[in-house]
Design goal:
This protein has an eight-stranded mixed beta sheet with strand order 9-10-11-8-12-13-14-15, covered by helices on one side. The protein has a four-stranded mixed beta sheet with strand order 2-1-3-4. It is built from ten helices and 15 strands. The chain has helices spanning 29-38, 53-62, 72-76, 93-102, 117-130, 144-155, 176-179, 188-203, 299-312, 322-339; strands spanning 2-8, 17-23, 47-50, 67-69, 83-86, 106-110, 134-137, 161-169, 209-213, 224-231, 235-242, 252-256, 260-263, 272-274, 279-281. Helix 1 packs parallel to helix 9 and helix 4 (93-102) packs parallel to helix 5 (117-130). The longest helix has 18 residues, at 322-339. The chain is an alpha/beta fold and 343 residues long.
């Protein structure tokens, strides 16, 4: 496991932001091209952190980072670092988030922050106590088209919205971190959360009832799920996700009495969205080398948003804040209970 520490700053600004990211092996440099992409123009890599000094130095040399740390504690103890991105396997998210907050650093932590709302609450409460920014990195919410979706929903152009649908099906259950219980595997926390956040983005409130079904593998982690969220006024969301099928048509729709919104594949990091009267496109930022995952250049939007929050002194994001984390993770708790998912 590699922890990559990236400091972000603007040329004429004194704020310094540090990001941490994980890759499983040094051969997966394509994944880290998204890091380099984030660091173009206003941003640059300043340090690499890993559990091994040798690995940290090797990685730092590849990306010409001036610092290489042999432990995460070294990152916490660096007084120049103000914000940390945590992208390690999510069994470590709470521990490292608390470590960095205790060290007085703002934190952007990859989703899922934790498998339960109570564990999430512990981190959020501590961030409030320390008066620091904490952001669970559900990167979808920072894409410009997601702002457009919210504006269209609130405009009334769709009429009475009564149905939201999402599908996220990808063949990923052979990956260790997803199929093993001791790694808190399963697709609910990995891809199901994207379906849930989309419904919450549209309706903005807790459902009155949740109906969920899913299958577990031999280790007891979920491989797929079908979820119905029932809201007041006969409004519904239908969410389907799977890690054991072939690639699906992974789109999202919002249907109202006057119109609809169609979010193209991949709805969690879309290049385009069809609104009632027009189609909008994101210009996904490009990195210096190919990505492992779809539209990973969109991580730039998340990094820029965190930077702007810190510069403006905001400690809770208006795009994906504490109330959103609570809503989504309480829904996850109920789905986990209904399908028998326990860690």
């Amino acid at each position: 496991m590699i922890l990559v520490d990236i400091s972000l700053f603007e040329q004429h600004d004194t704020t310094v932001c540090s990001f941490l990211l994980e890759c499983e092996t040094l051969d997966r440099m394509k994944l880290e091209s998204r890091v380099c992409q984030i660091c173009q123009r206003e941003h640059k890599i300043t340090a690499i952190a890993a559990r091994s000094q040798e690995k940290a130095q090797k990685f730092a040399d590849i990306f010409e980072a001036p610092k290489a740390y042999g432990s995460y504690t070294d990152v916490a103890n660096d007084p120049e670092i103000e914000i940390v991105y945590i992208g390690v396997i999510h069994t470590e998210h709470v521990r490292l988030s608390m470590m960095m907050l205790e060290a007085g650093k703002h934190v952007v932590c990859e989703k899922p922050l934790a498998p339960t709302w109570q564990e999430c609450k512990k981190v959020l409460d501590y961030a409030k106590e320390k008066k620091l920014l904490f952001l669970e990195a559900v990167w979808s919410r920072f894409f410009p088209v997601y702002d457009a979706i919210k504006e269209e929903v609130n405009s009334g152009k769709l009429g009475d919205i009564s149905l939201v649908t999402t599908q996220f099906c990808v063949p990923i259950m052979s990956i260790d971190r997803l199929c093993k219980k001791d790694l808190m595997g399963g697709v609910l926390l990995d891809i199901g959360i994207y379906c849930i956040q989309f419904a919450c983005h549209v309706y903005g409130e807790m459902p009155e009832k949740i109906i969920a079904t899913g299958s577990l593998n031999e280790e007891g982690v979920d491989e797929d799920g079908c979820v119905i969220l029932l809201y007041s006024g006969n409004r519904k969301a239908s969410l389907v996700y799977s890690g054991k099928t072939v690639f699906g048509n992974n789109t999202a729709t919002i249907l109202g009495s006057k119109g609809q919104i169609f979010v193209d594949d991949c709805f969690w990091c879309p290049k385009s969205v069809k609104l009632t009267e027009t189609t909008l496109e994101n210009k996904i930022p490009e990195g210096p080398s190919p990505y492992n995952f779809y539209n990973s250049g969109g991580l730039r939007y998340e990094a820029d948003h965190a930077f702007k929050l810190i510069r403006s002194g905001q400690l809770d994001s208006p795009k994906y804040g504490y109330k959103d984390v609570e809503m989504i993770h309480k829904i996850i708790d109920e789905i986990s209970k209904q399908i028998g998912l326990k860690y």
